[in-house]
Design goal:
Layout (H helix, E strand, L loop, with lengths): L23 E2 L3 E2 L12 E8 L4 E10 L10 E12 L2 E5 L2 H9 L2 H12 L9 E5 L37 H11 L4 E5 L23 H17 L6 E2 L18 H17 L5 E8 L4 H7 L2 H4 L2 E7 L6 H9 L4 E6 L2 E2 L5 H18 L4 E6 L1 E2 L16 E2 L2 E3 L6 E3 L1 H10 L7 E5 L7 E7 L5 E7 L5 E7 L2 E7 L4 E6 L19 E5 L6 E5 L8 E5 L2 E5 L6 E3 L3 E2 L6 E4 L20 E2 L9 E18 L11 E7 L10 E4 L4 E18 L8 E2 L1 E6 L18 E7 L2 E7 L6 E4 L7 E4 L4 E8 L7 E6 L2 E2 L4 E7 L9 E4 L2 E2 L1 E5 L3 E5 L7 E8 L5 E9 L12 E4 L20 E7 L4 E18 L11 E6 L6 E6 L5 E18 L3 E8 L1 E5 L1
Parallel strand pairs: 5-22, 6-7, 6-14, 7-8, 8-9, 9-10, 10-11, 11-12, 12-14, 15-17, 45-52
Antiparallel strand pairs: 1-2, 3-4, 3-24, 5-19, 13-16, 17-18, 19-20, 20-21, 21-24, 22-23, 25-26, 27-28, 27-35, 28-43, 29-42, 30-38, 31-33, 32-37, 33-36, 33-38, 34-35, 34-36, 39-40, 40-43, 41-42, 44-46, 46-50, 47-48, 47-51, 49-50, 51-52, 53-55, 54-59, 55-58, 55-60, 56-57, 56-58
Helix pairs in contact: 2-3, 4-5, 5-6, 9-10
């Protein structure tokens, strides 16, 4: 894994006729249900989890389908005539640590445990396994690959290849799992290839040397063949675990372009040797959809690429549907998900595992879900002895190697809600869901025709809902946080009146034909914020643009001879002018990860007509793209008005198509934070003196393309699918001047809404109405829009950093660098319409007290982020607790002598989520007797805490919250009088 930072780790056989109750045995493991003869009747079996009562997947009394209409607004309609993806299963990873711990059990206890994990009739029937190829951060020993060489030596022919390391306990564990459940599919992938293949000459860090691409492909081939000979068939591989990062344990950076080349070599090797193992691209976090799409857009790599592997540590499951819609023939798997110490309760852990990963993962097209370690010890290890791993993760179960005691964790039970009941080969079927804070659900039909419905109440109160299938329905009440699995083979139908006629469902499916069979594309309003939006005439058009698709406009690239460029920030080595010098090898860099409000600007030299902007990060800096953006135009460089376009960035080139516009200045504004620095290697602007143009949804298409329409609450939805074998184009402007080219097997979606149909946004109040730069404020009102879109909050002409945006409330941060004094705050709604304005007083505290001779200490500290860092005047260094926030965690500053003061300011710097949510502030003259001077319950990134004037030497700030998922960080701590 690439890192375990808290910001990233925030981080289903049929049971028809199952006996009415399960017993809880051996540390809360789930006893297998005893099957009896299935009958097609109206009885529904019920399996409930109540975390607060320590009740896990416990059998309840049957409920009964009845022939009645369902009038409940919370009615789940089941329709098995609408089928989605085929389910391969649910499971977890047999890491080296997991297999080693299982091997430490006695033969009898090991057999008992493996049956509970894998046996479909006597256990929870896990049917997916992930097996790392070599060392990870979870090893019972140190680093190893299957072809290690002494430092400085290489082995291009792989003459020393061997999987001997896995023979003592990994291979036996995998074979035993397969013997218990022959339907298991195993996925394998490396955290690092042999070090000699890499620029680092080590399992740690570096990237693949291009001369060893073919050798690494052969490494995969030899591994698949050796495992096959050992009785362990491998169904899937991915070329590299988490290729975006290089952690302090085995890992390797691999760009999308490198992975595409490697996949071609692996695919050719498999093809030549009759290997049927499928290849999954990416195998990293949800929020970089352009990585797998970059590989899918390369025909030579795509032919060997079955789909995408996703990890859950940043982003959300909607990205799976985003990529599915763009490339609907590709498979989708969640290949890694884990809980850990950052989760503040079993309830949180259970809700994330079942609600987010399993329910929403499969609703967003996942063919399977795999969690991380099957087993760890009570100390959350063993960890790789050669590297700096972090003991903060939780396995499905804990095995104490000292006494063999096994404890079953919440993740085991969450998986059981699915893996016990949803058989490999099942299909997800239609069910409507109610989203976060309500009843979330997913439905399946097994190969034998029986059905499974999994529901979870993610709200804060009990809810009664109805389940309707055909002419029958039943009601059920689920307490807050609880989950239930229903299984049934009916119901028997009677009459012709459906039990559910009108159900709430904002999504819509479009089914098209292709050479490989029908494909389905799903419209979901939750996808709109990740698509591209432009104002065109009297309409707002939001559209998708898969990687590999393009929009052609009139005109050509404009001359850059009179251009100049500026930016909100630029280091000496990455000035803005580098982006317009025509050399992709030089670049502008923001110098840090972008936040909402950072910008890059071009002065075209004079008012100029333009209709497209192409931004290129370059191949070698492919992750340095703006995550989400808005485009503005101005004639004077001061008045920017409303955004004219918005969208999501991606790897490589980003092409932004615009309505023809005349302006002298163009500004690209970041609207989302990213951990990667924002850079531009080259930027071009296109334009034409001939006529005008814009994007409109097509009314008709030809050349074998397919088009379908639907009316949603958000506007008219048009989807075009290319089921042919070649790229096809269609017109997307009324004058025909703009053309959309769609690669084979991809779709394009357009949502069109009249601007007049948007409610007029209204600015009601601003609180607080004064504060420091980078302090937080909230604007309330109405009609702002559900997502930011083309919306903006200005402080004068500066952009506020948006934190959250909803139809009635906007939370944001005062722009950094603003001078003290009154400033006008104005708001543009999501459609770009003016919402109103108010006044804000920017505070200047004056100089802070000199910190010469000051020292700091803390109750807890990360070894690399010492308390003294918050006094060093460098906001790039920080103090960090190294542990999640808890009530009683503290920091203390010794000012060296008695001082008079009445304010402190704590600044988290770049660790934007690691601020204290609530604190008490104490002062002392001697460091022994303490007086509380302030209590704060609304912590902020930059927090000004004022209190009556004090005279003291020591200041102690005590955390009073419990935010296990966030460390406490302070980049700078200042005191004022």
């Amino acid at each position: 894994m690439s890192s375990y930072g808290f910001g990233r780790r925030q981080f289903l056989a049929t049971a028809v006729g199952v006996a009415a109750a399960w017993t809880q045995v051996s540390g809360n493991a789930i006893a297998a249900p005893q099957l009896k003869q299935a009958s097609r009747d109206n009885f529904v079996r019920v399996w409930l989890t109540d975390v607060s009562a320590d009740k896990w997947v416990a059998g309840q009394d049957d409920v009964l389908f009845k022939a009645k209409r369902a009038a409940n607004p919370l009615t789940i309609k089941i329709d098995d005539s609408v089928k989605y993806q085929k389910v391969q299963g649910f499971g977890a990873a047999m890491t080296d640590s997991s297999a080693w711990l299982i091997d430490k059990l006695s033969t009898a206890e090991r057999t008992k445990l493996m049956k509970k994990l894998f046996d479909p009739s006597k256990g929870i029937g896990l049917s997916l396994l992930r097996s790392p190829m070599g060392a990870t951060d979870f090893n019972a020993s140190g680093n190893y690959s299957y072809n290690d060489m002494p430092a400085g030596q290489t082995d291009p022919t792989l003459s020393n290849f061997s999987i001997q390391h896995d023979v003592p306990y990994i291979i036996p564990a995998l074979r035993q799992a397969l013997s218990l459940n022959p339907s298991i599919k195993i996925m394998a992938n490396p955290w690092s290839p042999p070090g000699w293949m890499k620029t680092s000459d080590s399992m740690i860090g570096g990237t693949l040397k291009s001369e060893y691409t073919s050798a690494l492909a052969t490494y995969f081939l030899k591994f698949i063949q050796a495992c096959g000979e050992a009785g362990v068939p491998i169904s899937y591989i991915s070329p590299q675990n988490e290729p975006m990062g290089t952690p302090t344990w085995p890992g390797m950076f691999l760009s999308a372009y490198q992975e595409a080349e490697l996949i071609q070599e692996i695919g050719k090797a498999f093809e030549a040797n009759g290997i049927s193992t499928k290849i999954l691209a990416w195998d990293h976090n949800w929020d970089v959809p352009s990585y797998p799409e970059t590989i899918f857009s390369d025909p030579a790599a795509s032919k060997y690429t079955a789909g995408t592997g996703w990890h859950i540590y940043s982003g959300n499951p909607n990205y799976q549907t985003l990529v599915h819609n763009d490339y609907p023939s590709k498979e989708t798997f969640i290949t890694e998900a884990t809980g850990g110490v950052w989760q503040d309760s079993d309830q949180t852990a259970f809700s994330e595992a079942l609600g987010t990963w399993i329910i929403n993962g499969t609703r967003n097209w996942a063919n399977g879900v795999m969690l991380w370690n099957i087993a760890l010890d009570p100390d959350r290890g063993p960890l790789n002895s050669d590297t700096a791993g972090i003991p903060m993760l939780r396995g499905l179960l804990a095995i104490d190697p000292a006494d063999g005691r096994v404890t079953y964790n919440v993740d085991y039970h969450a998986l059981a809600h699915a893996s016990m009941f949803v058989k490999p080969g099942a299909h997800r079927i239609y069910s409507n869901t109610f989203g976060e804070d309500s009843i979330e659900n997913v439905a399946f039909q097994n190969p034998d025709g029986s059905k499974v419905l999994i529901a979870h109440n993610s709200g804060s109160a009990a809810k009664t809902f109805s389940v309707a299938d055909g002419t029958h329905s039943f009601d059920y009440t689920l307490n807050a946080g609880d989950a239930v699995t229903f299984t049934y083979s009916g119901p028997a139908q009677s009459g012709h009146t459906p039990a559910a006629t009108k159900v709430s469902d904002p999504t819509h499916d479009f089914t098209f034909t292709s050479a490989s069979g029908p494909v389905t594309v799903t419209y979901d309003p939750a996808l709109l914020p990740y698509q591209n939006s432009i104002r065109t005439g009297s309409k707002l058009v939001t559209y998708s643009l898969p990687i590999g698709a393009s929009v052609q406009t009139t005109g050509r690239a404009l001359s850059r001879s009179k251009w100049t460029a500026t930016a909100s920030a630029q280091p000496d080595w990455g000035v803005a002018a580098n982006a317009i010098d025509g050399d992709i090898n030089t670049k502008w860099s923001l110098g840090h990860g972008p936040t909402s409000g950072d910008w890059f600007q071009i002065d075209l030299g004079s008012p100029t007509s333009f209709n497209k902007i192409v931004i290129d990060t370059g191949v070698n800096n492919s992750f340095d793209y703006v995550t989400k953006y808005q485009i503005y135009g101005s004639n004077d460089g001061a008045d920017w008005g409303s955004a004219i376009a918005s969208g999501s960035g991606g790897i490589g080139k980003i092409a932004v198509t615009l309505p023809t516009r005349t302006a002298q200045y163009i500004r690209i504004v970041s609207t989302a934070a990213s951990g990667f620095w924002w850079g531009i290697g080259d930027i071009e602007v296109y334009g034409s003196a001939r006529g005008t143009g814009s994007i409109t949804a097509p009314a008709a298409v030809s050349n074998g393309l397919q088009l379908k329409n639907w009316t949603s609450k958000e506007g008219e939805v048009t989807v075009v699918f290319n089921g042919t074998t070649d790229s096809k184009s269609f017109k997307i402007s009324t004058g025909g001047s703009y053309t959309y080219t769609l690669p084979s097997g991809t779709s394009a979606m357009f949502t069109t809404k009249k601007l007049s149909s948007f409610p007029s946004p209204t600015f009601s109040d601003l609180k607080p109405d004064q504060g420091m730069p980078r302090s937080k404020f909230t604007i309330r009102g109405s009609g702002f829009g559900d997502a930011q879109g083309l919306g903006t909050v200005y402080f004068g002409s500066s952009y506020a950093e948006i934190d959250t945006w909803s139809d009635t409330s906007i939370s944001a941060y005062v722009p950094k660098g603003l001078p003290a004094g009154k400033v006008t705050v104005s708001v543009k709604g999501a459609s770009g319409a003016d919402a109103g304005r108010s006044s804000f007083d920017v505070i200047d505290l004056g100089p802070a007290l000199p910190r010469t001779g000051w020292t700091a200490k803390a109750s807890d500290a990360s070894p690399s982020d010492a308390p003294g860092n918050m006094l060093d005047g460098n906001s790039d260094t920080r103090y960090s607790s190294g542990t999640g926030q808890y009530d009683g965690l503290w920091i203390q500053v010794d000012m060296g002598q008695t001082q008079t003061f009445d304010k402190i300011v704590s600044d988290v710097g770049g660790s934007v989520s690691d601020y204290a949510r609530s604190v008490d502030v104490y002062v002392s003259a001697d460091g022994t007797d303490w007086t509380k001077v302030s209590s704060v319950a609304d912590g902020q990134r930059v927090h000004l805490i004022s209190f009556p004037t004090q005279t003291a030497r020591y200041i102690k700030v005590v955390n009073t919250g419990n935010v296990a998922r966030s460390w406490w960080s302070v980049a700078e701590f200042n005191v004022y009088n």
